[in-house]
Amino acid sequence: MVYYLVKIVSHFVCILPRALRRNLGMVVGRLCWPLVSKKRRKMAIDNISRSLGIAEEQAETIAKSSGIRLGPMFMEVLHMPRLSKDNINKYVTLRGSEHLAAALAMGRGAVLATAHSGNWELLGAALAMHGFPLVAVVQRQTNAAMDTFINEYRTKAGMHVTYKQGVREMVKLMGLGKIIGLLMDQDNHSDGVFVEFFGRMASTPQGAAALARLNNAPIVPAFITENPDGTHTAILHPPVLVTKTADRAEDIRSTTQHLTRIIEQHIRQHPQEWFWLHNRWKTAPPDLKK
Predict the structure, then answer these.
(1) CA-CA distance, 256 to 238, in Å (whole number)?
(2) Which domain, by its residues, includes 125?
């Protein structure tokens, strides 16, 4: 029932003009913002203030913008069936696509390291529609209907979808020259490697560095940001290569730290577009635990 309801809403969103879609998304975002718990809002404000070194009032403005923007983002996801290879450039401009092409030319597959900043779903769709063989590594949604819905749209955009648990499949696909897309900016509990992020140690997914090291593959950091006119720019960075030594753990840690610095730099440039409502520093380093 939920699946069909969302599909119906998506159908109507697809026929709306861009400006109306965005305005409707902003309304949805503003209506949902007060529903976010006070505890989570305070957590976001505190983290923004501490990370960026700004006053609480300014941090609150960024936190609110970060939350509200999820409304327009959801509308863009619902509109994804209207995107195609023929019109994608009207919505997303690629900057630095030569870096991803160069990474693939090495012949070992590639890892795309990105973050929950901007419309990351649109980033994946745009790359796939530009002919890049992208594999979206996703977290299974709690709601099965929504899981089916979003994966259907990802597949229609040209992405191959696999779940985080499918490590063997990722390795196999990299061997076939595919790009493994990984989000690496959320707390990874006891499974993460601790690196510095905005001056604090944070448990960070090590999958990007571990996969790249295993296949001797390049890692391309990539992000997407919204332009003032409502279009988007995808920003792809030069490939990062993992230095392979006898110390595997240190190779992974140092590469993860390097990638995390690139993510931090992007967030500093576009703080209102990152998902601050996630408790990024939830897991304390072992030496700080009581």
Answers:
(1) 16
(2) 87-288
Cα distance between the two ends of the chain: 47
Per-residue pLDDT of the chain (290 residues; tens, 9 = 90+): 888 899 999 999 999 999 999 999 999 999 999 999 999 999 999 999 999 999 999 999 999 999 999 999 999 999 999 999 999 999 999 999 999 999 999 999 999 999 999 999 999 999 999 999 999 999 888 889 899 999 999 999 999 999 887 788 999 999 999 999 999 999 999 999 999 999 999 999 999 999 999 999 999 999 999 999 999 999 999 999 999 999 999 999 999 999 999 999 999 999 999 999 999 999 999 876 55
In a domain, 24, yes or no: no
Q: How many domains does the structure of the chain reveal?
A: 1
HSE on the CB side for 156, CA within 13 Å? 16
**7 within a domain of the structure (yes/no):** no
Angle (deg, nearest 10), helices 56-68 and 18-32: 120
Indicate the pTM of the whole model: 0.95
H helices present in the chain, as ranges: 2-14, 18-32, 38-52, 56-68, 70-78, 97-105, 120-129, 144-156, 167-175, 207-215, 248-269
